[in-house]
Amino acid sequence: xxxxxxSQIREADAYTIAxxxxxxxxxxxxxxxxxxxxxxxxxxPGQPVIVFAGKGNNGGDGLAIARIxxxxxxxxxxxxxxxxxxxxxxxxxxxxxxxALVNSPVQVVHAVNEMPAIPAGAIIIDAILGTxxxxxxxxxxxxxxxxxxxxxxxxxxxxxxxxxxxxADRSTKNAPSVHADFTLSFECYKLAFMLPENADRVGTPxxxxxxxxxxxxxxxxxxxxxxxxxxxDTLYLPRSPFSHKGTYGHACIIAGSYGKMGAAVxxxxxxxxxxxGLVSAYVPTCGYTILQESIPEAMCITDPAGEFSxxxxxxxxxxxxFKAIGIGPGIGMHPxxxxxxxxxxxxxxxxxxxxxxxxxxxxxxxxxxxxxxxxSILTPHPKEFERLFGKTTDEFERLGLLSAKAVAWNxxxxxxxxxxxxxxxxxxxxxxxxxNPGMATGGSGDVLTGILTGLLSQGYQxxxxxxxxxxxxxxxxxxxxxxxxxxxxxxxxxIGHLGDVFLSIRESASTNKL
Length: 514
Ligand SMILES: NC(=O)C1=CN([C@@H]2O[C@H](COP(=O)(O)OP(=O)(O)OC[C@H]3O[C@@H](n4cnc5c(N)ncnc54)[C@H](O)[C@@H]3O)[C@@H](O)[C@H]2O)[C@@H](O)CC1
Ligand SMILES: [K+]
Hints:
Blueprint: H1 6-19, H2 24-42, E1 49-53, H3 57-71, E2 76-81, H4 89-99, E3 106-109, E4 123-127, H5 140-149, E5 156-160, E6 182-186, H6 199-202, E7 204-208, H7 214-219, E8 224-227, H8 229-235, E9 250-254, H9 261-272, E10 278-284, H10 288-294, E11 299-303, E12 324-327, H11 335-347, E13 353-354, H12 356-364, E14 377-378, H13 382-389, H14 395-409, E15 412-415, E16 421-423, E17 429-432, H15 444-457, H16 462-484, H17 491-496, H18 498-513
Parallel strand pairs: 1-2, 1-4, 2-3, 4-5, 5-6, 6-7, 8-17, 9-10, 9-12, 10-11, 12-13, 13-14, 14-15
Antiparallel strand pairs: 15-16, 16-17
The structure holds ligand NAX and potassium ion.
Ligand NAX binds at residues 13, 24, 27-28, 31, 54, 56-59, 61, 83-84, 88, 129-135, 137, 141, 160-162, 186.
């Protein structure tokens, strides 16, 4: 799914109005009905509803939702927030329609002391500002937001299109905004929803299709995408009935050190569970028994240094042709490991997966960047990202940096998070849609490294591998949390659920082809 900017959404609205064609007021009615339906599906008519409406089209949506809910038997109170003098045309039209209803209560609020009381258990509809927000909110609106956020007990804030105060494409990290429980947003995710700085403002985003014109949506060009199932199904490569283990490549996981052999075990196991034909683990001698006993299906190559790896650079001399290599989980930062990694990276000619301490080694010696093979995949978490690329003032700036580095280094960078951001060498960014907080646990990243290496090994191109790998990793985490709970699940449980995810993708990909 494409993620559009506020101005592209305005263009999409205008294109739809002109080419469907449909009057703007009817498009607003469609959007408002989609919201009202969602509310009616989730909350019974007995609950009081308070609608806070601004003076633009977001407010117009609020007024239309109020009318539809009133007609459906809800008790609705409407407060128009006078944040500007003149109302939009469609706001005025919807106000007229609302006032035509018998006993419809409409109050105009000019100051925070005029705000209506919010009863316990109320559904608060926040339709003050939407994608038209063009500056951080200040002045008395700040107090209005504060009043709404300090809502009465058991009430729920449902923001329409955007939590008021948030800008779709710019940081409003330090500006006031409504903190929604749910944000019902039209047609597509907004960039602001993808960023951790807005997590407690957006609440749960719900995307409601409103039938914006297909031609516009197909042709509009954007750098930002949300990786949903429709993208994933097109990436999946079914295995050929005539294949053998050689078809799916020999993968190598370079991982582990004394006390961190679990990282090697997790990455190796997830690599095997992601379809590699053969998997070798390259580990220090101290990890030999651990690895062989826990994963009999994997081969094991040992580094003579003992408790850490110091001869990674000699791997190429073994005469084995690896189809894909993943390096980093648990390797540590012993000076010999650092030196050995530095030599090894200069010898690589095909895309590799680089994670954890391998990233920290590169951060400590930025001249290594020139040796990272084109289209390699780097998987930093935010701290590793900062060590590699430096600090940024907000997360929009960080996205810009992420994209610029992926272009400059000609690589894929997967920045881990709730919606992991995957930057591609062409500058585009894909946000992964799966995963949950239960995955914020030791070893989860090692599992991802193994999955990515396994996918590369069996012939996925790096872009397909990183998009599919991130999705599968998150989806297996979701399945694990459904089974064990977010608290009790561990990284190994993610591996345990990879099978369910591959089965389900295989099934829907083959159904789509019928
Ligand atoms: N155009 C269309 O056809 C549709 C628009 N829709 C709704 O229209 C919304 C966009 O409407 P508008 O473009 O009228 O904009 P908004 O309703 O978001 O904002 C209204 C006005 O508030 C003012 N404003 C901006 N920032 C402010 C700030 N920080 N403090 C105080 N005032 C500020 C601006 O003058 C802005 O035009 C969408 O979010 C969506 O809810 C939907 O009804 C779907 C269809
Ligand atoms: K809003």
